[in-house]
């Protein structure tokens, strides 16, 4: 079985139209909810990004409200990896050996904890951040950028 861990740059594509949004929506529609993983902090990070876009005038207040409602619904459907001691320790270790910023280390640390929890299950790390994809690959994850690999996303069962 394969599960998909959506790092915040990928998860945000479900709420604001960006390059890769269509491919990610297709993937999410083809995968059972119990195979969609996020860090517990991801909805807050995406909430903040939507509000920043609204404040900057990049999206309207109505679009922001609609995106935040969809965010609430979709986040509730995902398996959320809590920010527990295992995630925090994995993040700390990542900070010791990489150049990740702490929020990125939390994201990858949550994916690592999920991989440990779902032993024997392939966890695909989904992100649109090149440095996060590189860091996840260095930690042994299969990685996917929905903006660059739409054919791979569409091949999902």
Poorly predicted regions are 153-157
Number of domains: 1
Radius of gyration: 15 Å
Q: Tell me what the CATH architecture is.
A: 3-Layer(aba) Sandwich
What structural class is derived from the secondary structure elements? alpha/beta
Helix content bin: 55-70%
Strand order of the largest sheet: 3-2-1-4-5
Q: Tell me the name of the CATH homologous superfamily.
A: 5'-nuclease
Report the principal-axis shape: globular
β-strand percent reads 5-15%
Main beta-sheet annotation: 5 strands, parallel
First CA to last CA: what distance?
11 Å
CATH topology: Rossmann fold
Secondary-structure element pattern, one letter each:
EHHEHHEHHEHEH
Structure characterization notes:
- The chain is of the alpha/beta class and 157 residues long.
- It has one domain: 3-Layer(aba) Sandwich (Rossmann fold), CATH 3.40.50.
- The chain has 8 helices and 5 strands, in the order E-H-H-E-H-H-E-H-H-E-H-E-H.
- The protein has helices at 8-11, 21-30, 42-55, 61-77, 85-97, 102-117, 130-138, 150-154, and strands at 2-6, 36-39, 79-81, 122-126, 142-144.
- It has a 5-stranded parallel beta sheet with strand order 3-2-1-4-5, with helices on both faces.
- Helix 7 (130-138) links the parallel strand 4 and strand 5 (142-144).
- Helix 3 runs antiparallel to helix 4 (61-77).
- The protein is globular and about 40 Å long.
- The relative contact order is 0.21.
């Amino acid at each position: 079985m394969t599960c998909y861990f959506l790092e915040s740059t990928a998860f945000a594509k479900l709420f604001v139209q960006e390059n890769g949004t269509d491919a990610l929506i297709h993937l999410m529609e083809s995968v059972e909810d119990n195979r969609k993983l996020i860090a517990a902090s991801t909805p807050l990070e995406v909430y903040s990004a939507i509000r920043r876009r609204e404040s900057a005038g990049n999206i309207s207040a109505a679009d922001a409200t609609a995106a935040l409602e969809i965010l609430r619904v979709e986040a509730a459907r995902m398996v959320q990896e809590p920010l527990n001691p295992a995630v925090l320790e994995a993040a700390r270790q990542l900070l010791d050996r990489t150049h990740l910023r702490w929020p990125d280390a939390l994201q990858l640390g949550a994916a690592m904890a999920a991989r440990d929890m779902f032993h024997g299950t392939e966890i695909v790390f989904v992100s649109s951040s090149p440095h996060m994809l590189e860091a996840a690959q260095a930690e042994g994850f299969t990685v996917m950028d929905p903006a660059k690999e739409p054919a791979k996303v569409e091949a999902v069962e």
